[in-house]
Design goal:
This protein is α/β, with parallel strands linked by helices. It has six helices and six strands, in the order βαβααβαββαβα. It has one domain: Alpha/Beta hydrolase fold, catalytic domain (Rossmann fold). The protein is globular.
């Protein structure tokens, strides 16, 4: 089984690589898809990363990037793992293809999912939401999404970004808890 990881707006960082490494014994191979062609950028803060993402990639381009990648993965078995914008990108393409039945998506705090509530995924999707978001009510979004087939929603005890050591919302306890969950999916 292969793991395909979609990064957040920070892209491919040493902390993400550490996270991926902690899952490597579970998968035969791991590919990381990021908005910046693997260019490592030291952002000053989240606002700086967001501005750079909007200017140099954007949501639609990131969706296209994953779509192109998945075209050659049609019959393969893999898990998709996404964080923040990466999770939203996975959600956006989840209805575009007929996936192998063993394909599964695991998405952490994909806040842009709220703009794609019409999507009916063709794969099993586990959505892990932050305990609260500034721009929307997570409980309302979870209630809408739980009515969809193939979708499981979980509300965490942590804030958006808790799995990313670059984020001000990083939480060591949350990180440890969900790494253990990822190892057992």
């Amino acid at each position: 089984m292969k793991l395909i990881v979609l990064t957040d707006i920070y892209g491919k960082t040493k902390h993400l690589e550490k996270l991926v490494q902690s899952l490597s014994s579970k998968y035969s191979s791991i590919d990381i898809i990021d908005p910046y062609e693997s260019l490592k950028i030291d952002f000053l803060n989240e606002a700086d990363a967001y501005t750079y993402f909007q200017k140099n990639c954007g949501l639609d381009n990131y969706i296209d990037k994953l779509s192109q990648y998945l075209k050659v993965q049609q019959n393969n078995e893999y898990h998709l793992l996404g964080f923040s914008i990466g999770a939203s990108v996975i959600w956006a393409v989840s209805e575009k293809y007929q996936f192998n039945e063993k394909v599964k998506a695991i998405c952490f705090y994909g806040s842009q999912i709220r703009n794609f509530l019409y999507i009916q995924p063709n794969i099993k999707v586990d959505l892990y939401f932050a305990k609260k978001e500034l721009n929307f009510n997570t409980d309302e979004i979870i209630n809408i999404l739980m009515k969809k087939t193939k979708v499981n929603c979980f509300k965490t005890d942590y804030l958006h970004g808790f799995m990313n050591q670059e984020s001000k919302n990083y939480n060591k306890n949350g990180y440890t808890k969900y790494i253990d969950i990822l190892r057992n999916i």
